[in-house]
Amino acid sequence: MEIQYFDNDDVCAFSSPLDASLATDAGAQNRQLLALRKGFDVAQLTSAEQVHGCNIAIVDSEHVGCGALDINTRIPATDALITNLRGVCLLILTADCVPVVLFDKRQKVIAAVHAGWRGTAQRIAEHTIDKMVSIFGTRPEDVVAAVGPHICGKCFEVGNEVVDAIGQEYVCGTGANGNPTLDLGAANIAQLKSVGVADIYDSGVCTYHCAEWPSWRREKSNVRLGTYIWLKRG
Ligand SMILES: [Zn+2]
Q1: Which of 16, 117, 181, 195 has the lowest tally of Cβ within 10 angstroms?
Q2: 130 confidence band (pLDDT: 50, 70, 90)
Q3: List of domains in the chain
Q4: How far is the CA of 144 from the centre of ligand 1 (A)?
C-alpha cells in the first residue's frame, strides 16, 4: 500500500511500492495509473537521472515533464529536485536508498531527495535545504519533512568505507555477515535537524524487511519504488 505523507490544500506527497522505473514498460504504466488515482498530471511529472551525486536542480518551466514517461528526457546527473511550480510532480526512485520529501509551508516550495550512502555522505538533504533557503527564502522552521521507506539500520550491512563516510555514530550493530550495520535514515534526519528542520516524519518501513517494497539488496533488480510530491493548483 501507498504511504501518504502530506495531503492538504497546498501539497500532496506519497510513496508507492509500484515499480516506477522506466527500465521496463511497467514503470510508465504505473506512473500513469498513480497520476489518475492520486490526481497529478503525468505530463508534468519530472524526474532525474540519479547518480548518487550531490547535484540539486531547480525545476523551472523548461524542465517540466522531463523524464515523465521517457527515460531519455530525464534531468541528467541530479539527485534532488526543488520547485515552487504548482501542478509539477517531482519523482524520486529508490530501492533501499533513502527518499526524502520537503515542503516549505510558508513559501510553498517542495523538494524530493535521493540519499543513498554516497549522497548521505555528501549531505545532499542538508544541501537541498540550503538551496531552498538561498533561492526561495525558505526558513527551515517552516519546512515539514518526510523520510520514506529505505533499508533499516539493522539490515544495512556495510564495509568500513561506508562507516567512515557516514559516521561511527550511525552504526546500529553487526549484520549476518559480521559487518557493521548502519542507519542511513537517522543520518539524514540528523542532517535536517542540524539546519533547523524540526518537523520530520519517518515512515519506519524497511524495504529489505518488508517484501511489498522494492529492495535492491533483496531482489537485485531494476524495480524501484516511487516517491512523489507536488504542489496542488490553487
Ligand atoms: Zn530492516
Answers
A1: 195
A2: very high
A3: 3-151+200-231 (3.60.140.10)
A4: 25
| Cα of 176 from ligand 1 centre, angstroms | 12
Digit-coded pLDDT (tens) for 189-206: 999 999 999 999 999 999
pTM (2 d.p.): 0.98
Distance from residue 148's CA to the centre of ligand 1 (Å): 13
Do 149 and 210 meet the contact criterion of CB atoms below 8 Å apart?
yes
The x, y and z cell numbers of residue 18, run together, are: 509500484
